[in-house]
Specification:
single chain, alpha/beta, Ubiquitin-like (UB roll), 3 domains, 4-stranded mixed beta sheet, 9 strands
Length: 308
């Protein structure tokens, strides 16, 4: 009987499998791989950088000319799935998904050797051909001037920043987590649902601020959101002033008259110590203007998401 050699890679382990050439389908290969690696969860197979979506496709038909078929196995261990399912979702955190702000690329990479850097270890998921791009995103996050400033100011204790496997589909599956704070480690979801690209850098950055706030507050209460907003605002301000106007987000605030009037209204209310709800505010006019710009930025992003 003619056989085909499949080299299956899962995490740091490789196995050579001899399978019947004529009868084996993708679904049969999945079962075989689950048995060989003792994987209790559903598996996803990647060949030549693409998902094998058709379970009925003959394995031999993937590439008849190659003597060996190198298959990348993706699976989430039961412990990880349980951890994600038990983590509380934030009802006020909008599902964040989309392409990168540069048409599929994850931003123009700049030299950051002379910039301050958080002493966190950055770990991207193994097994992806574009793992280096995920590593670059993580490295970019730990050298963001604003992020460095707020982490150091509030002494937020984090040792590792790691890439999270994209379990579930954003906005569709009831269990879909974009980030986790595990005490000394923060996990961030970097990849899109189809694993073919990366989520917008701005959106990844927003999730990072969310997880940093969990360093102080566990529950999604008023104190948590106040602290999260403070982190984002102060990071925004630090990056803006130290880099001559370059913002921590990719899109600059609008300079139209309506936006300027909104800044003035917020700043004026702040000077008088009056905010919505009758509570007092200690914000300076400059801080209030920055907060207004942040609010506009988020509203604009929400509007763009709704149009997609």
């Amino acid at each position: 009987m003619t056989t085909t050699c499949v080299v299956a890679s899962w995490r740091s382990t490789k196995r050579r499998l001899e399978i019947p050439t004529t009868t084996y389908r993708v679904v049969d290969l999945k079962r075989k791989i689950q048995e060989e690696f003792d994987i209790q969860a559903p598996v996803t197979l990647l060949y030549a950088g693409r998902k094998l979506l058709d379970d009925q496709q003959p394995v031999a038909g993937l590439d008849a000319e190659k003597k060996e078929l190198h298959i990348l196995v993706l699976a989430t261990c039961p412990e990880k799935i349980q951890q994600i399912q038990q983590s509380k979702s934030d009802p006020l955190m909008r599902p964040l998904e989309g392409r990168t702000s540069h048409g599929g690329r994850v931003g123009p990479w700049r030299k950051r050797s002379e910039q301050p850097r958080l002493h966190w270890s950055c770990v991207a998921l193994q097994g992806f051909p574009d793992r280096h791009k995920a590593q670059e995103i993580l490295e970019r996050l730990v050298t963001e001037r604003g992020v460095v400033a707020v982490v150091q100011k509030y002494n937020l204790s984090v040792a590792r920043l790691t890439e999270m496997y994209p379990h579930g589909k954003v906005g569709i599956d009831p269990v879909c987590v974009l980030g986790l704070n595990k005490g000394d480690e923060i996990e961030l979801r970097l990849r899109t649902d189809d694993l073919q690209g990366f989520r917008s850098y701005d959106k990844i950055l927003q999730v990072l601020f969310h997880e940093l706030a969990h360093c102080r507050y566990k529950e999604h209460d008023r104190a948590f959101y106040d602290f999260m907003n403070r982190l984002e605002k102060e990071a925004y301000e630090a990056d803006w002033t130290k880099q001559g106007g370059r913002r921590i987000m990719e899109q600059a605030p609008s300079n139209n008259s309506e936006s300027m009037m909104e800044d003035r209204r917020v700043a004026s209310s702040s000077r008088d110590g009056i905010v919505l709800g009758g509570k007092q505010s200690n914000e300076s006019p400059r801080e209030a203007a920055i907060r207004a710009a942040l609010l506009r930025h988020h509203k604009k992003q929400e509007s763009q998401e709704e149009k997609k």
